[in-house]
Amino acid sequence: MATLDSASAVPAALQALIEKEAIRELLARCFRGSDRELQALAESCHPPDGNINLGIYNGPVSGFFAGTAAFRAPMLAVHHHIGQSTIELDGDAAVGETYVLATYVLPGADGPQTTVLMTRYLDRFEKRGGEWKITDRRVAFDAQLDVPGGPPTMAPEQVWGSRDDSDPSHALFASLAG
């Protein structure tokens, strides 16, 4: 167990934890925006001058949704499962590597297919106006697994998730807005 040499180290260490947690929450919001097709939420995680390079798209944040629309349109489900993140801070700048299992369910000629990608998101962050943003995002693809199947078979259709406004998460988060 690590110990602190002086009481003056506690505020700096605590501030580092606060900043890293804010970055982790930013990552979760960004992936939720992508998974639920919430363009405004996903784009709010980046500054207007930010860049995204995911292989299928390399350009400004403002063009990401339009630039990947044809790729995303047939997807029946998308989940980004966030694993460990290594985040290094340097004042109002940071870099991070986040392990992600990206799961996509797509229609196919012989029925739905699920693709799982083992990826690492390599991000640069800046704290602007007191808020962390992803200024540059790149992805490293490590492996891919394709399996037949997709939509749930053990749950009744009325409780399936969706990528549109009918997903139950929208009502859940809206319940706090009032």
Task: Give a written overview of the molecule.
Strands 2-1-6-5-4-3 form a six-stranded mixed beta sheet. It has a single domain (9-155), classed as Nuclear Transport Factor 2, Chain: A. The protein is globular. The protein is of the alpha+beta class and 178 residues long. The chain has helices at 9-35, 39-44, 64-67, 69-72, 168-174; strands at 51-53, 58-60, 77-90, 93-106, 113-128, 131-148. The mean pLDDT is 88.
Blueprint (SSEs and pairs):
Blueprint: H1 9-35, H2 39-44, E1 51-53, E2 58-60, H3 64-67, H4 69-72, E3 77-90, E4 93-106, E5 113-128, E6 131-148, H5 168-174
Parallel strand pairs: 1-6
Antiparallel strand pairs: 1-2, 3-4, 4-5, 5-6
Task: Name some characteristics of this structure.
6-stranded mixed beta sheet, 178 residues, 5 helices, single chain
Uncertain segments are none
Return the average pLDDT rounded to an integer: 88
What's the number of domains?
1
Helix content: 25-40%
Element-by-element helix/strand order: HHEEHHEEEEH
Strand element count: 6
Distance between the termini: 44 Å
How big is the Rg? 19 Å
Strands side by side in the biggest sheet: 2-1-6-5-4-3
Structural class by SSE content: alpha+beta
Tertiary shape = globular
CATH class: Alpha Beta
Q: Which band does the percent of strand residues land in?
A: 35-45%
Q: Could you tell me the CATH topology label.
A: Nuclear Transport Factor 2, Chain: A
For the largest beta-sheet, the strand count, sense and barrel status come to: 6 strands, mixed
Number of helices, counting only DSSP H or I runs of 4 residues or more:
5
CATH architecture: Roll
